[in-house]
Amino acid sequence: MKGLLVEWLLCATALATSGCWHATVSNVRPAAKLDEDPLLSPRFFSPPIALAVPEDAIVRIVGPVTTCSGTLVDEDVVLTAHHCVVRLGPRGDFTANALAPNELHIELGGDYLPWGTVAVKAVVAPPCGERGGRGDVALLVLSHKLIGIAPYKARLDGPPRIGETLDPTGFGRCSLSPDGIHRSPREGGTVGWTTSGTIGMTASICPGDSGGPVLSRGSHEIVGVVSLSAMDGDEHTRSASIMARIDAFRPLFGLARQIADGASPSELPPPTCGE
Question: Is 203 helix (H, G, I), strand (E, B) or coil?
Fold first, then answer.
């Protein structure tokens, strides 16, 4: 197995000319990715929903600096990772400062170029998890419903079982990947352990997979989102990974639904980290 890079992947706009700055802190890091192709990410054109396939519920999330993955869990709500929707600090570290909704947009389609984009009107996330692990869950309320793309089901009634086989999917790209950015099923594994907010397993993860769905094998049922992983540049290397449990943050889904239906976030109770 290729040696694991012992580093956090920390990217900041100030370092755009030299790439990402790497701090030798840990071999487990968030799998967000610097947006390398801003000119290939058009923000506004009409999505031909009639051309959608079931897997188009898995989308790419584009921010001002990084790109991540997410999943449509309702016609106008996308599930992703909390660290994908916060600002980066001066050294590329993930902060607790949330991005404004208008700084994010969703790209539709699984190939190299999107066939549609959608604006974000609200971000719902707990006051924890912005650096990965427990609470690394966020919901994006879209500007309009995506009629014609079937949402994936979020399993909110309990955690995955120890030994259950899970598979992630995302829009990441590893440094040794032979092709460009597109939606890719990843090699997953069995659940080794769980905590109150995380799932431990092995999986092949690349930068940009953060926020992507962790699916019960053979289904479209989401049990978690990609949060942290050891990555060595090879998309086929299955390494220790931590996924954020979504059932531990079930109230977030209710808050997002109310906002999508017209409620003002100021009228609703703020999200919490639970126990």
Answer: strand
Interatomic CA distance for residues 144 and 142, integer angstroms: 5
Give the type of residue at 264.
S
For residue 68, count CB atoms less than 10 angstroms from its CB and return exposed for 0-12, middle for 13-18, buried for 19 or more. Answer: buried
Residue whose entry in the numeric block shows the structure tokens 């109150």: 196
Sign of CA dihedral 43, 44, 45, 51: positive
Q: Tell me the longest C-alpha to C-alpha distance in the chain.
A: 52
Q: So what's the pLDDT on residue 75? A: 96
Q: Which amino acid is at 28?
A: V
- Stretch 81-90: mean pLDDT, rounded? 95
Using alpha carbons, list the distances in angstroms from residue 253 to 72, 211, 218, 219.
12, 15, 24, 21
pLDDT per position as a tens digit, 174-197 = 999 998 899 999 999 999 999 999
Average pLDDT of span 199-205: 98
- Among 57, 224, 259, 58, smallest CA distance to 141 is for 259
29 vs 15: CA distance, rounded Å: 18
Q: Which one-letter DSSP state was computed for residue 164?
A: -
Phi, psi dihedrals of residue 156, rounded to the nearest 5°: -115, 0
Composition of the chain by helix, strand, coil, percent to 5: 15, 35, 50
The pLDDT value recorded for residue 274 is 73
